[in-house]
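Consider a concrete sample entry:
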Amino acid sequence: MTVRRLADNQDIDFTFDDKDLIFLNSLLENYPNDKKQSAVVPSLFYAQKKAGGWLPEKAIIAVSDFLDMPKIRVLEIATFYSMFNLQPSGDYFVQVCGTTPCWLRGADKVKKACKDYIGQEREVSKDGLCWIEVECLGACVNAPMIQINDVYGGGPFVPGPTGYRTRFPCG
């Protein structure tokens, strides 16, 4: 089991402005009036994008305030789902699937390429890249799978992130 904690360095300002509140209120329209807390996952996802790809504590508090939820409940949700990053993830966040289907089709080579090109897992490189191994990206048929920010790719041709530099936004 992975222990997920908020980043030590929380030196970031975060608030929802009027434009953000308009969007977040539009999310609430998808839920019954008395169930607005059901919008916690999409609200956290929105806050993560606004904060540059990760959830600082101030973003968690902002979501908690917006949804009238205790901070600890929002934190529990943010720490439970691996789609939420609790520390800075750089401009280009690379996720490499490490499950058996991907491993059988070369994920170990992709992970080695990430380590050689980007550096240690969860550390942001000087050129804004960060990578982690994840449990599953949900496309085993295309193994090995890799995701850079919101773009998925895969297949036996995948040599690692350096091969993606011409196909993905980090190139």
Observations:
- Residues 98 and 108 are 8 Å apart (CA to CA).
- The first helix runs from residue 18 to 28.
